[in-house]
Automatic annotation (TrEMBL), chains A, B:
Pfam families: AsnC_trans_reg, HTH_24. PROSITE patterns: HTH_ASNC_2. SMART domains: HTH_ASNC (SM00344). GO terms for cellular component: cytosol. It comes from the Bacteria. This is AsnC family transcriptional regulator. GO terms for biological process: response to amino acid. It comes from Streptomyces actuosus. The lineage of its organism: Bacteria, Bacillati, Actinomycetota, Actinomycetes, Kitasatosporales. GO terms for molecular function: sequence-specific DNA binding. The keyword Transcription regulation applies. InterPro entries: AsnC-type_HTH_dom, Dimeric_a/b-barrel, Tscrpt_reg_AsnC-like, Tscrpt_reg_AsnC/Lrp_C, WH-like_DNA-bd_sf, WH_DNA-bd_sf. Keywords: DNA-binding, Transcription, Transcription regulation.
Amino acid sequence: MAIDHLDGRIIVLLAREPRIGVLEMSRRLGVARGTVQARLDRLQSNGVIRGFGPEVDPAALGYPVTAFATLQIRQGQGADVRAHLATVPEVLELHTTTGTGDMLCRLVARSNADLQRVIDRVVGFDGIVRASTAIVMENPVPLRIIPLVEQAAEDRDRT
Amino acid sequence: MAIDHLDGRIIVLLAREPRIGVLEMSRRLGVARGTVQARLDRLQSNGVIRGFGPEVDPAALGYPVTAFATLQIRQGQGADVRAHLATVPEVLELHTTTGTGDMLCRLVARSNADLQRVIDRVVGFDGIVRASTAIVMENPVPLRIIPLVEQAAEDRDRT
DNA sequence: GTACCAGTGAGCACATTGCCCAGTCGGAGC
DNA sequence: GCTCCGACTGGGCAATGTGCTCACTGGTAC
């Protein structure tokens, strides 16, 4: 589970320049190609690296508005609500949480007006008691993993 | 900005099997290799596809706990808080929002106990007035874009 | 009709991949 | 101390994919 320093450098390098191949990585890191290949295989079968899917920008697709909705669910309706939300394309992500709400989901929409349509579709389902929505204005820190990977690699080193 | 049906199929195919190359894609889609190559170049320079970074699973790195924190910021301290949060590796994402809170951030931690340390570090900063945290229990819908891409492609078709 | 754009199918040199091997090194176990 | 084992190295191989170019076609706008 824990990654060592070399694993960390591989992931960071890959995150910064995804297009580079195994050979180029081995050159930059100063290790043999087979080593990088073996590490990568291990990281993937470990599940540390889930995949290399394309990162798509919803804004560029015509969905510039992002929002987070906190949902309160009627007791026992959780599974139905999950299934319902999974059918809405504008729901990019869904979590069940502790705290005030029962679920938190990330939404996108074509405009603020369109967001109303999306929310109606999301909450237009029996098991949802209440929803409160926060519209995203800015995204100062986009989803990132590099600092965490570096942290994890250093923790390992100290051990 | 808008993507057509072929663009949609390219992205979906790529999302499902990231390792396949341009040549294999052209075979599956029944179009010429040059076409796929040109489309991909356009999608990337458009910004629709931001990149192909590795998807790292924080849980596999030793951070199995995810939480969302809603922060209230003292007037005028926004920039400082942003800068502060950017230095915390466990902050994976940060948004400024409308609504009850002023910011929403995604955190990870090594354990529920460790989450306390992370939160202390996050809110241990002058500009933050209040924080309320929701711990993620389940993730029924992991971050996804395929349904949205298909939606966008169909909308385009209808036009 | 002409110009233009997107797609096609083909060809080319080149680099990279996936795979195999023999050899070295360091640590763990006996 | 000795041996075994796993990880890393450096090399070599055939096969494949890449980046690039070309001439040609079909549809569309002017």
